[in-house]
Amino acid sequence: MIRLVPRTETPALLQVAIPLLAVLATMLAGGILFGVMGYDPVAAIKTIFWDPLFGPAASYSRPQLLVKAAPLILIASGLAVGFRAGIWNIGAEGQYIVGAITGAAVALAAYPAQGMWIFPAMVVAGAAGGWAWGMVPALLRNWFGASEILVSLMLVYVAQRIAAWMAFGPMKNPEGFGFPGSRNLQQYPPASNPELVAGTGAHWGVVAAAAAVLATWFLMSRHIRGFHLRAAGLAPRAARFAGVRPETLVAFCLGLSGALAGMAGLFEVAGPAGQITDKVGVGYGFTAIIVAFLGRLHPVGILLAGLLLALTYIGGELAQLTMNLPAATVQVFQGMLLFFLLGFDLLTRYRIARRITA
Amino acid sequence: MIDPVALFVLLLSASTPILFAALGELVVERAGVLNLGVEGMMITGALAGFAAAYHTGNPFVGFAAAALGGALIAMPFAALTQFLLSNQVASGLALTLFGLGLAALFGKPMEGVKAPAMAAGPLGLNWIVWLGLLMVPAIWWFLNRSRTGLVLRGVGENHDAAHALGYDVRRVRIAAIAFGGAMAGIGGAFISIATVLQWTEGMTAGAGWIALAIVVFSNWTAPGVLAGAWLFGGVTVLQLRLQAAGVRVPVQLLSMAPYLATIIVLVAISARQKFSRRAGTAAPGSLGQDFHALR
Amino acid sequence: MNRRQLIASVAAVTTISLAAPTWAQDEPLKVGFIYVGPVGDGGWTYQHDQGRLAVEEEFGDRVETTFIESVPEGADAERAITQLALAGNKLIFTTSFGFMDPTINVAAKFPDVKFEHATGYKRAENVATYDARFYEGRAVIGTIAGRMTKSNKIGYIGSFPIPEVIQGINSAFIHARKVNPDVEMRVVWAYSWFDPAKEADAAAALLAEGVDVIMQHTDSTAPLAKAQEAGAIGFGQASDMAAFAPTPRVSSIIDNWAPYYIKRVGQVLDGTWTSEATWAGIGDGEVVIGEITEAVPAEVKAEAEALRDRIGAGEYHPFTGPLNKADGSAWLADGQVAKDEELSGMNFYVEGITAEIPQ
Question: Any transmembrane segments, and where (chain B) (predicted)?
Fold first, then answer.
C-alpha cells in the first residue's frame, strides 16, 4: 500500500522539475493523440511549443506571448492572494467585463475630447469598476455569510448580460450603421492603449502585469498583511486569535483581485480588443483561475504559467495554420495539459510513502 | 392572448436539459464537490447520445449512451480531485475545455446527419421530460430518506467527521461525480436527440453554466432545483413568447433577472442561518474543499 | 483526346513548369481564411469553407489554402490574421463582421498582401469587402411562405437586430404580403447566431402564437425540428439543411461563396485584383435557393422560381416602391428602387409589420 504524506517543505529542485515532468507527459500523451489523428506527432509538438518562440515568425509571436499572457497574469496575481487566504473569488470574468465597461465608459463620454487625462482616468475607472464588482460578494459574505464563490460566479452572468445590453444599447457606436458594438478605442488616440515600443508587444497592460507580479510578491513575502493572509489560509482560528480580522481580509482580497481584473479588462478593451461588444468577456477571468493554480499561487509561478498557456494558444494557432490541425484537437491537447499539470502538482505538496502496517 | 397552459408546456420541454444537469450537480455538490465542468459533460452526452441514437435508430439507447458518456468524461475530474487532490474549481474548468474539444473532435463524422424522431409520450410530452420530472422526487427521497443519501450528505457537510465514522469519503464522492456526469449527459442529449435532431459543435451553448446557477438558487434541494429550472427556463420562454406576441421586452435586462434572484435567495438563506443560528440547509459545509485522510 | 489523356497532359505540363527554374509566379498562391466558428458548424463557417474547397478544386496546384477556425472576434483576431500574413498568404479572407477593424489594422502593416473582409464597410487600397444580398433570397422564400401559410401568420427568428437581418425580415414580409394580403409577421430575436436550445424555444414560442411557417436567420436546425413536431414548415438557412427535406424544410437559402472566392483568387493570379465593394446576389450565384420540395404545390414553386429568375436577371428589385415605413411615413415612391446605401444601414420595418425593432 502506498499513502501520501504532506510535505512540510518542497525541495527547490522539485518545484521546477515537476511542472517540467507534467509538460513532458502531456507532450507524450498529446503526441499519441496527434499520431492517432494522423498528424506527425513530433512536428505538432514542435509547432506548438517551439515555433512560437524560435520558429520562422518568432519575431512576431514572441511579443504576442506577452500580449496574450498579460491579462491572465494580471488577473491571476490578484486571485492568488485571495486563494492563499482561503478566499475564493471565481468571478474574475465578471470583474474583467465590468472593468472594461466602466473604463470604456469614460472614453466614450469624453469622445471626441483630447487630453492627457483621459487614459489615466480610464484606468482608474476600470480598476474601480472591477473593485466594486468584487466588493459585492465581499460585503455579502461579511454581512450575511453568503458564499463568495457562488455570489462572484453569479455576478459573472450578470456582467455578461450588462455587456450585451451596453453593446446593443447605450454604448452602440452611433456611426456604426446599426451594428452592435461601441466605437473602436484604438481609433481614438487619447483613449487607446497601443504598443509602447514598436515590436515588443508591450502595452500598458503588460507593464501592469509585471508590476502586479512584483507587488504581490512583495505583499505576500514582505508585508505584514501578506503574513496575515497566509496565516488565515493555513490556520484560520489561530489567525483570528492573533488579531486578524477575517472581514478585513475578505474585503481586501476580493477588492484587490476585482480591481486587477477590472484593469485587465480596461487594458484589453482599450488595446488589443478595441471595443465593447457582447463578447467582450473571452474567458480570461476563468482561465486565470487555472493559471493561478498552475503557478501554485506564487507570483513567479503565475508568470510562468501565464506564459505557458499563452504559448499553447499561439502554438495551437500555428499548428492549425501550418499543419491543418483542427481547433478541436488543439483544445483537447490544452485540456490534457491542464489535467497533467494539476495532477502532477500533487507531488510537490505530498510525498509518497509506503503504508506501514502495524 | 398568451395561453398559460400552452406556455407551461413550452416551459416543461425548454427546462428539461438544465433540470437534468442541475439535478446531477445537486447530488455532486451535496457530496461536497463543486464541479464546474457541467458544460463539458453536457456536450459529451449530446454527442455520445446522438451517435448512439443515430447508429441504433433508438433514441432511448442514445440517452443511455449519453449517461455513460457523461459519467466517463467526469472520471478525469474525479481522479484529479479525489486522488490527486487538485483544486476543484481549476479541474472543473479544465474538464469543460477538455469535453468541448473532445466532443468537437469525435463529432466530425456525425455532422449533417439526422437522428430518428422520438415518439411523444403521455400528454404529447417527450418521455425524457417525464423522466426529468420523476427524478425530482426520486432525488429528494434519496437525499432525505435513504441511508445512502444520509451518508452522502454527511460526507458533503463534514468530510472529516464522515471519515472518522468509517465512511469512504472518496468512494461516495466518485460515485456522486459519476452520477452528476450521467445526468448532465442526459441533459445534453436532450438537446441533440430531442430538440435539434442533429449534432453540431458547441450545441449546448452555455446550458451547463445555467445549471450551476440553478443549484445555488435551489438552496441545495431537489424541489428547489425544479423551481430554479422553471425560473431560468421560464424567463427565456416567457420573453420569447412575449416577443412572438409582438410585445417589446428588454431582453438583456430580463435575462439578468434570474441570476439576481439567485443571489438574493442565496443571501437570504445565508443571512437566516447566520442570524438565527439555525441548522439550515445552505451550501454544504465541505463544498469545494479538498479531502485528504491522514489516517 | 479523351478526358484521361487531357488530365495526363495537363499534369505533364504542370510537372514541366515545376521542374523549370522557379519564378515567383510559379509558386502556388497562398490563400488564407479566418473563420469565426468551427468548420463543423453546419452553417455560416461551413459554407465559407465550402468556398475554400471550391477554390482548391478550381485552381489545383496553383493555390494553397489554409484556415484558422474558431477565432474569437476581438483581440485574438488581429493576431490570427497577422499569423496568416506572416505565413506567406498573399490573399486573406476574413469571414465575420467582427474582424473588420483587425483586418484594416493588419492590412496597413502588409501592403503587398490582399485582404477581403466579409460583411463590413471599411475598405483600403488592399482591403476589399464582400457581402451577399440575402434579402433577394428572402423575397423568394417569403413568396413561398405567403402562399403556404394557412393561419396567415409567419414567424421569423432573428439573430441580432442589424441591417442585414432587418433587410431579410422586410423583404420576406413584402413578398409574403404580395401573394397573401392577410399575412402577418411575428418576429422573435434570439440574440445569438447559434444557440440550438434557444432557437428551439423561439420556434416553439412562434408556433404557440399560431404561426405555421417559420423563417430563420440563425444557423441551427432546431427551428426545423420544432416545426416538424408541430406539422409546420420552415426553410434551410446558410446551408441547405437537406436532412430535413422534403418537409418541414421545403426550400432553403444558401450562402454560396464559391463563385466569388474563385473569381477573386483568379484575379490575384492574373494580376487584375483591385479593392472594391462587392454585394452579389442571386444573379451571381452567391445566394442560392435550395431545391423546392414536393411539399410545395407546383404553381407556388413555379411562381417562386419565376421571382428568383427575375431577380437573378436584374429585372426586379425586391425593394421597389411604393413602400412605406412601419411608422406610416413614405419611403419609396411607385417604381422607385432602394439605394444600396439605404439598405446597408436599414433600421426600420416596412409598413405592415407591427412589431418594433429593439434598440
Answer: 31-53, 60-83, 89-107, 119-143, 174-197, 209-233, 253-271
Q: Tell me: do C13 and C36 sit in the same domain.
A: yes
| DSSP character string of A32-50 | HHHHHTTS-HHHHHHHHHT
For chain A, which chains pass the contact test of at least 3 CB pairs under 8 Å?
A: B, C
Determine, for residues A328 and C38 on separate chains, whether the beta-carbon distance falls below 8 Å.
yes
User: Are B287 and B158 spatial neighbours (Cβ–Cβ below 8 Å)?
Assistant: no
C-beta atoms of A330 and B101 within 8 A: yes
C19: in domain: yes
**Same domain for C36 and C147?**
no
**Residue A334: which of A350, A349, A320 has the closest Cα?**
A320
Q: Which residues pair with B111 in a beta bridge?
A: B199
Whether A279 and C67 lie within 8 Å, measured CB to CB: no
* Domain enclosing residue C74, as ranges: 3-132
Q: Which residue has the cell 509561478?
A: A301
How many other C-beta atoms are found inside a 10 Å radius of the C-beta of residue B260? 14
| Number of separate domains in chain C | 2
Closest Cα of chain A to B65: distance in Å?
Answer: 21
One domain for residues C40 and C144 = no
3-state secondary structure of C115: strand
**Cross-chain Cβ contact A168/C70 below 8 Å:** no
A contact test, residue of B33, B83, B87, B264 with most A CBs within 10 A: B87
Cell digits of residue B250: 428588454
Beta carbons of A331 and B292 less than 8 Å apart = no
Partner A contacted by C230 (CB < 8 A): no
- Does the CB of B245 have a partner CB in chain C at under 8 Å? yes
- Residues of B whose CB is below 8 A from A144: 267, 270-271, 274
Mean per-residue pLDDT, B79-96: 90
Nearest neighbour of B196 by CB, restricted to C202, C220, C354: C220
CA angle A95, A97, A103 (to 5 degrees): 95
Contact between chains at B117 and C228 (C-beta distance less than 8 A):
yes
How many other β-carbons are positioned within 10 Å of the β-carbon of residue C122? 12
- C21 and C45 part of one domain: yes
Amino acid code (one letter) for B7 = L
The interface predicted TM-score of the complex, written ipTM, equals 0.87
- How far is Cα A201 from Cα A192, in angstroms, rounded to an integer? 14
Distance CA C211, CA C208 (A): 7
B200 touches chain C (CB under 8 A): yes
Indicate the pTM of the whole model: 0.89
Regions of chain A where pLDDT drops below 50: 358
Q: Rg for chain C (alpha carbons), in Å?
A: 22
